[in-house]
Design a protein that fits this description.
Number of domains: 2
Helix content: 55-70%
Order of helices and strands: HHHHEHEHEHEH
Strand order of the largest sheet: 2-1-3-4
CATH class of the largest domain: Alpha Beta
Radius of gyration: 22 Å
Number of strands: 4
Distance between the termini: 23 Å
Number of helices: 8
Length: 253
């Protein structure tokens, strides 16, 4: 399987992080080992075993992640990898990216791509009424006077923005759809709707924070397009949204 450049960035940073952690663990083992002998003869062995287990878990987790990416299928404990990637590895990747000159935006894009791959590998299926399409308010035409944040169905379908097409997708597959003006409202929408899966459209920053906050709910993130700059008259590839819906519903197009 071909690994897309975005995912390759995350994997490269992961390898770099593991090498640094292995070096730090070696120092953590080497420096105190002589002093521990003076406390008790058995302490160096115990300390070595603990660190060996830690190294094994890191190594096996990294291999499992890479195998899941290459194979594209759910394998042993791979459904847990999303949580590790979202809660533990991603903050490290941001730091490692800064050290090697990779921008936060590229690391976030890589994280979103990797998360989507893991979600799809897990083949999570849900019912239509338990699937939520979550959109940013900036996808609505800036000059539109219709308020859709409370109810997307208020849209009159003029076609000036893609809310009309997204509403049609929602009706076609009988899935829920909502618009959020920010992270706080997005979290409230998720709590109120209690979805089993989410198709989220947003920018890199909002998607990464949303994926982290929503875990363990599986989220397929789709980056919006910003021909007019950020936060105004953004767009989205409707086919990508449709594909994500079908990934969760398990239906044929």
């Amino acid at each position: 399987m071909e690994i897309k450049p975005k995912k390759r960035i995350f994997i490269g940073l992961l390898v770099f992080t593991c090498l640094i952690l292995f070096f730090l663990i070696f120092l953590l083992w080497y420096v105190p080992i002589v002093g521990l002998k003076n406390i008790h003869p058995s302490l160096p062995l115990f300390f070595t075993i603990v660190l060996a287990v830690l190294v094994f878990l890191m190594f096996s987790g990294g291999l499992l992640l890479v195998f899941t990416i290459f194979i594209g299928k759910d394998i042993f404990l791979s459904h847990k990898l999303r949580g590790i990637v979202a809660k533990v590895l991603f903050p490290f990747m941001i730091l490692m990216g800064r050290l090697v000159g990779v921008s936060k935006e590229k690391v976030r894009q890589s994280f979103i791509e990797l998360n989507n791959h893991l979600v799809r590998s897990n083949h999570h299926r849900t019912r239509p009424n338990k699937l939520l399409i979550l959109l940013p308010h900036c996808i609505q035409d800036f000059d539109c006077e219709i308020k859709i944040t409370g109810n997307v169905k208020n849209c009159k379908g003029c076609g000036k923005c893609e809310i009309k097409d997204l509403n049609e997708l929602s009706d076609q597959y009988q899935v829920k759809i909502a618009v959020a003006t920010g992270g706080t409202l997005a979290r409230r929408i998720i709590v109120d709707n209690r979805p089993e899966a989410i198709v989220a459209v947003a920018c890199e920053l909002d998607l990464t924070s949303g994926i982290q906050d929503s875990y363990p709910i599986p989220v397929i993130g789709i980056l919006n397009e910003r021909p007019n700059g950020p936060c105004i008259n953004t767009k989205v590839d409707i086919q990508k949204v449709r594909d994500a819906i079908l990934d969760f519903l398990g239906n044929d197009p």
